[in-house]
Design brief:
Elements (H helix, E strand, L loop, with lengths): L1 E3 L2 H21 L9 H18 L2 H5 L1 H7 L2 E3 L3 H18 L4 H4 L6 H11 L4 H49 L8 H52 L4 H9 L4 H24 L1
Antiparallel strand pairs: 1-2
């Protein structure tokens, strides 16, 4: 299940706000000089042209879908996965693997469903592991190809900003006989570099890094699912399976759980002493 990730739009908005505040603070009356249509055309037009040359059309069509992924997050919790596989393990030991088919109606994750169905069909654990890892590899490849477009945008945007600056400098040198135009012409020439650098470092590069982190998290979750499916299929004791899957919990989660245990123990001892 996915939810909206508010950190991405908040970060982008905050970055642009900080830039605008810096402009307004140092030169509020000249803030309009930071807008130049020709510079925008050079950066955005050159960026689109580079993508058309570098990628196939079906890959370019995926750009909007890939960008949307940076604004969503998977709220799947490891503790919920552990509880699910403990429940499935207990039912499998009590009623057999075939009984798990009825439980799949309450499972939303297609990867978990696929793994359990393979287990119910009596597939060997090694084969289940190979099949599900092959799906993970295919997912990583899809994510990489989609993320590459955003990474290339981060590379091309500053380059086209520099090209725009060079164009502006050439135009400026053609008017050296009029010293009054040198300052404004230089400012316009530098705007394309500003636009390209801001787009790269505030939008494209951070988004690509976020998408890479999301892929790593998804792979991590799917590895836990594989361990859980194989544990259920092999008939592992639910307590042993819980201990095995709990190893995937972060150190912070373990510390929090240990703190809760200590607090509960202290509460019980205080109650006993009072009695």
């Amino acid at each position: 299940m996915t939810k909206r990730d508010l950190l991405t739009p908040i970060g982008i908005t905050l970055g642009f706000i900080m830039i605008m505040l810096a402009i307004l603070t140092k030169g509020g009356e000249n803030a309009g000089s930071f807008m130049d249509i020709s510079s925008i055309f050079i950066v955005l037009g050159g960026l689109v042209a580079s993508l058309l040359i570098n990628f196939k059309m079906d890959q370019i069509r995926l750009t909007s879908k890939v960008l949307k992924e940076a604004f969503h997050k998977n709220d799947q919790q490891i503790s919920d996965l552990i509880n699910l596989f403990i429940t499935l393990s207990e039912q499998a030991r009590r009623e057999g693997l075939l009984a798990l088919e009825n439980e799949l109606e309450n499972v939303d994750d297609p990867f978990i469903k696929k793994g359990i169905l393979l287990a119910v069909d009596g597939i060997e654990p090694e084969v289940i592991n190979d099949i599900m890892n092959a799906e993970i590899t295919a997912m990583e490849e899809r994510h990489y190809r989609g993320r590459t477009i955003i990474e290339k945008c981060g590379e091309y945007a500053p380059a086209w900003g520099m090209i725009g600056t060079l164009v502006g400098l050439v135009l400026m040198l053609n008017t050296l006989d009029d010293p009054a135009t040198l300052g404004p012409s230089m400012a316009v020439a530098l705007l394309t570099t500003l636009y390209g650098t801001v787009l790269a470092n505030l939008v494209f590069i951070p988004m690509a890094s976020k998408l890479e982190n999301k892929t790593e998290e998804e792979v991590f979750i799917k590895q836990i699912i594989i361990e859980g499916v194989i544990g259920v299929q092999s008939g592992q004791n639910p307590r042993i399976l819980e201990e095995k899957l709990s190893a995937f919990l972060s150190n912070e989660t373990h510390v929090e759980e240990d703190s809760n245990v200590i607090e509960e123990t202290a509460f019980v001892e205080d109650s006993t002493n009072e009695a």
